[in-house]
Amino acid sequence: MNEYNPHGKDIRFIDSHYKDLFRLPDGGSIRITYADGESAVRKCTYIDEYHTQIGNSVFHICQFAELMERNGSTYQPEKEETLMSQEKIERWDDVKGNDAPQDKLSEFLDSTTDAYAILQLRRTDETVQERFESLASLHRQGKEPEFDHYEVVYAASLPPYKDQTMLLEGLYEKFNVAHPADFRGHSLSVSDIVALKTNAVVSFHYVDSIGFQELPAFMKLENYLKNAEMAMEDDYGMIDGIINNGKAPQMEETEKKSVLEQLKNRNEQDIPKKPARTPTERNLE
């Protein structure tokens, strides 16, 4: 029972021809089995006679049936609830942490193939009022999702897809009931962000209380360039938009004088040669 369903009506599931398949108590779960054999459990909430919230999205009951049939998926009632509660998510963060390497973002953005990334809020005082908040709640606080408040906790190659909504829903299911072994974040939840890179175009999608909301202005190019430059620059005083343009002139002059003084007491053949710097290839896990 919820605010849309004060009388405790059951949720109706049908096929694409409006034939009744089964009814589910409000707040119950279904198990979706995909064409490749993988499955996921999604909680369902009654909205009205023809609409239900399944996982994080609201569907017309016939629309959901058509999507499942189109993708070769089946669905049936699930007796046991398996999705993590917010309290469990908090405990997961406390125990597991959210310690993904900082270069996950550049791995994702620099990928030469289609890819996706999971972004979650950093655990700082700045983000306390933003964690698990809907986009509408942020707006009521006079806020927008801020790039600097997030970190990339997972990145991987993006499988081929036809429907972006179903792709995002599939990722939501995957990061709730079938975490990859190397995933160190909490289960995908409201306030998290899914980033997609398709044909070299990057988009960011906020996990909202209902569905996903695209954030076209989430990551400004200058922020990424600054972060990349700071990671590679020899001298932080030379943060100027040109990656690793060397040390400041005054520093270079001081180092030259120091080296000349040392060379007076050494033979040229004794000077060790500095090995050539080789670029590091970054690949998505």
Account of the protein in words:
This protein has 285 residues and is of the alpha+beta class. The chain folds into three domains: 11-78; 92-219, no CATH class; 232-266. It is built from seven helices and twelve strands. It has helices at 61-70, 86-96, 104-109, 135-140, 164-177, 221-232, 249-263, and strands at residues 11-14, 20-24, 29-33, 39-48, 51-54, 57-60, 74-78, 115-121, 150-157, 193-198, 201-207, 212-214. The protein has a five-stranded antiparallel beta sheet with strand order 6-5-4-3-7. Strands 9-8-10-11-12 form a five-stranded antiparallel beta sheet. The longest helix has 15 residues, at 249-263.
Entry summary:
By secondary structure, this protein is an alpha+beta fold. The protein has helices spanning 61-70, 86-96, 104-109, 135-140, 164-177, 221-232, 249-263, and strands at 11-14, 20-24, 29-33, 39-48, 51-54, 57-60, 74-78, 115-121, 150-157, 193-198, 201-207, 212-214.
Topology diagram in text:
Blueprint: E1 11-14, E2 20-24, E3 29-33, E4 39-48, E5 51-54, E6 57-60, H1 61-70, E7 74-78, H2 86-96, H3 104-109, E8 115-121, H4 135-140, E9 150-157, H5 164-177, E10 193-198, E11 201-207, E12 212-214, H6 221-232, H7 249-263
Antiparallel strand pairs: 1-2, 3-4, 3-7, 4-5, 5-6, 8-9, 8-10, 10-11, 11-12
Name the helicity range: 25-40%
Element string (H = helix, E = strand): EEEEEEHEHHEHEHEEEHH
Number of helices: 7
Whole-number mean pLDDT: 75
Secondary-structure-based class equals alpha+beta
Residue ranges: pLDDT <50 for 5 or more in a row? 81-85, 95-101, 225-248, 266-285
CA(first)-CA(last) distance: 42 Å
Strand content: 15-25%
Taking strands numbered 1, 2, ... along the chain, how are they ordered across the largest sheet? 6-5-4-3-7
General form: globular
* Assembly state of the chains shown: single chain
Tell me about the largest β-sheet.
Answer: 5 strands, antiparallel
Tally of distinct domains: 3
Instruction: Give the strand tally.
Output: 12
**Rg value:** 25 Å
